Amino acid sequence: MGDFYQNGIVTTLHNLVDRPLEDLENELRRFSKQRPMALILPSLFSELEGSALSNIIDEIAKVDYIDEIIIGLDQATEEQYRYALKFFSKLPQRHRVLWNDGPRLQAIDERLKQRGLSPAELGKGRNVWFCMGYVQASGRAEAIALHDCDILTYDRRLLAQLFYPVANPSFNYEFCKGYYARVADGKINGRVSRLLVTPLIRSLGKVLGSLDYLDYLDSYRYPLSGEFSMRKDVLNDLRIPSDWGLEIGVLSEMYRNYSTNRLCQVDIADVYDHKHQALSEADDSGGLSKMSIDIAKAMFRKLATNGVVFNSETFRSIKATYYRIALDFVDSYRNDAVMNGLDLDLHREEQAVELFAQNIVKAGNMFLENPMETPFIPSWNRVCSAEPTLLDNMMAAVIADNEEFS
Q1: InterPro entries from the entry (predicted)?
Q2: How far is Cα 399 from Cα 326, in angstroms, rounded to an integer?
């Protein structure tokens, strides 16, 4: 049961009552006549072999208000792509599978590289970006939602509540972020959000002073959730990172492009669990270690575009301030866990804080050493200006792949 408190500068849409799912879906069917809906599913092939995605597809197959589903498939051979087409064929809705490693889409990517417009690195951001391009090429949807493919506790109510704020014609929201409590199997999860993002936002405020951007980020209850929805026109100017800074990058773009009264967050699940990343203390090229560096860099870049000047001393102050605030949060979460009968490993929590503190300085040094870095993928507006036929060519390539290999 959620509360009704409105904190921060972004509207929060709570789950105040257990409203019947049938009521929500009846309304969404009605909304779909005016605002057709599309769902983006960015997926690794390995997720087709996991325990989560099969249930997700079974649940989505029961949804009849979605007009189109776009699945971005990464790290798949031809044989695996054929398997994926069969795997997703149980979906009764119109759907397309983007074989991002296939020769047709690789040829599209090569055209982009020649123009300096291709995403700089592989990953979820690149996958999502190509899916967004296909949504624009298709032209069928007015409201678009996106969620991850590793949600172990998925049911279709999550999708209904995620779509509702941007699909309802009487609402004026352009963008909606999903949130939830990261509690599963008797434990509090979500370490990067709990122990990095929120303490880092608060420490940046202490060191740099009050900034509207930091107040804005701090308004989101779960800023790293992979679930969000938006109106079609949001896609045109969206510039997103291709690394783990995707979620923070999207929120930053919404702050740049829209008034905060056009943005909201919605409670989409009472219980949420998904695949967990290793802390990866010994290797900052993977796991939560790399994630923490990418997220910190995304925040520093955005603050720099707002005129904030950083130097080595600044980052040392941020680290020291962060460390104290984060340890206070560890105590708060420990007490919350004890009162609710949940497990929380104090040692592992403080290990994470120590790693994140080190990585804040690493991220700061990377930012200072490479000020000319261009981490954002170009907007589709820019791509279409440089390559007017590319979206049509991409759509034709996806259709050809689906028809040839199915």
Answers
A1: Nucleotide-diphossugar_trans
A2: 49
